[in-house]
């Protein structure tokens, strides 16, 4: 499922990061496995220098036809994928003012070989797994609406509106 809207306050810093000139939210997704009763919330951020991915895994229990109890288990930070070439935009807009990045890009060209070496050393590293213990990792969802393409749910964290990947609804929004 791909988020269309959320009023979840803990996502606001993530969305603010995506509004910065050189760091963008590439993907936010949620995968639900009804066989293993697991949920994986994943996010990927990209910059001209690297791509950063992290996720949170949770188990869930269906309590009623519309209520689900969620227990987050761990967060996972993937090793960053460092770009072998630094691909800066020609200009960046900061507070309504366009800044020319061509001189910066010329200065950074010699650093590309160092970036390639770092990429080779990081690429084989395992992800960093962080357990999420205690009651703060417990949550619930009340599913207000659900069909083949769309889900609206409310939880102790806010309102969530999601569309299934590949849904025609996503075409209407783009």
Report the total helices: 4
Largest sheet: 10 strands, antiparallel
Helix and strand sequence:
EHEEEEEEEHHEEEEH
Tell how many strands the DSSP assignment holds: 12
Q: Give unreliable regions as ranges.
A: none
Distance between the termini: 16 Å
Q: In percent, how helical is the residue content?
A: 10-25%
Q: Roughly what fraction of the amino acids lie in strands?
A: over 45%
Overall morphology: globular
Backbone structural class: alpha+beta
Mean pLDDT: 82
Measured on Cα atoms, how large is the radius of gyration?
19 Å
List keywords for this structure.
single chain; 174 residues; alpha+beta; 10-stranded antiparallel sheet; two-stranded antiparallel sheet; 4 helices; 12 strands; globular; Plastid lipid-associated protein/fibrillin conserved domain-containing protein; PAP
Describe, in short, the structure shown.
The chain is an alpha+beta fold and 174 residues long. The chain is built from four helices and twelve strands; from the N terminus they run E-H-E-E-E-E-E-E-E-H-H-E-E-E-E-H.
């Amino acid at each position: 499922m791909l988020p269309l809207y959320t009023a979840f306050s803990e996502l606001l810093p993530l969305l603010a990061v995506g509004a910065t000139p050189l760091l963008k939210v590439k993907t936010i997704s949620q995968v639900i496995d009804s066989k293993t009763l697991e949920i994986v919330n994943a996010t990927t951020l990209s910059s001209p220098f690297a791509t950063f991915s992290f996720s949170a895994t949770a188990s869930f229990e269906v309590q009623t036809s519309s209520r689900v109890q969620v227990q987050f288990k761990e967060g996972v930070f993937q090793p960053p994928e460092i770009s072998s070439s630094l691909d800066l935009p020609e200009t960046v807009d900061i507070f309504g003012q366009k800044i020319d990045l061509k001189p910066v890009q010329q200065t950074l060209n010699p650093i590309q070989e160092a970036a390639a070496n770092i990429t080779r050393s990081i690429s084989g590293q395992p992800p960093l797994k962080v357990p999420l213990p205690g009651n703060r990792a417990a949550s619930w969802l009340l599913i207000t609406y659900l069909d083949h393409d769309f889900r609206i749910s409310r939880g102790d964290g806010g309102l969530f509106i999601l569309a299934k990947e590949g849904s025609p609804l996503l075409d209407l929004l783009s």
